[in-house]
Design brief:
Keywords: Membrane, Transmembrane, Transmembrane helix. About 70% of the residues lie in helices and about 0% in strands. With about 100 residues, the chain is mostly helical. It has one domain. Helix 1 runs parallel beside helix 3 and helix 2 runs antiparallel to helix 3. It is elongated.
């Protein structure tokens, strides 16, 4: 399974945040701090924690873990980068109006 529980929770929170921005106008205007926070979250912090939780779940109860078995966890970074790019584009389109 490519997404874990942590990933689904973060995607749900992102959806709720986007709904709040769209429906209730939580953020009134765009600024560079918003984009910096989004870049840091989706570029570094979320993929790092996602990979850590997945590694902990994968090695639980196993005596020997091969590094090749956990290679797929590195693909969390490009996946979250793509989600972050989509998030920045979505926020730009909402705040432009």
């Amino acid at each position: 399974m490519f997404f874990g529980t942590f990933d689904y929770i973060i995607l749900g929170l992102t959806f709720i945040f986007n709904f709040g921005v769209w429906k209730y106008k939580i953020i009134k205007k765009r600024n560079w701090i918003l984009y910096l926070i989004t870049f840091l979250l989706f570029g570094c912090i979320i993929p790092f924690f996602s990979m850590g939780f997945e590694i902990q779940k994968a090695i639980e109860g196993q005596e020997f873990v091969d590094n090749f078995t956990l290679l797929y966890t590195y693909f969390r970074f490009p996946t979250w980068w793509l989600i972050g790019i989509l998030e920045i584009g979505f926020l730009r389109s909402l705040l432009r109006k």
